[in-house]
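Work Package 3 (structural annotation) set out to generate three-dimensional models for the target panel prioritized at the project kickoff. During this period the team completed the workflow that converts sequence records into discrete structure tokens, so that structures can be stored uniformly alongside our sequence database. As a representative example, we reproduce one entry of 89 residues exactly as it appears in the project archive.
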Amino acid sequence: MIEKSWLDEIQKRLQNSMVNPDIELELVETEKSYPFFRVRYIVEGHDVYTKDLELSACKGMTPEQAADFLSFQIQQFMDEIDSTEYGGE
């Protein structure tokens, strides 16, 4: 069982670190699977890309470590989309 305080702290840290207004972050908790964050990246106000980041990969991490790990994954996701949308840098 995952502690709610652990999830809340990760979510708080992620929201504080996300300065990009084109990113939406939602914590999804279900009875059938491990919780995950659903990331929505909105490009130019109309194209929406979604990725689910499984928290099972963060087992044993502190909230700070998990937030750093997930932030890195979010940045990679954004870079992939930007590369596709804009032809890379």
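The chain has one domain: 4-84.
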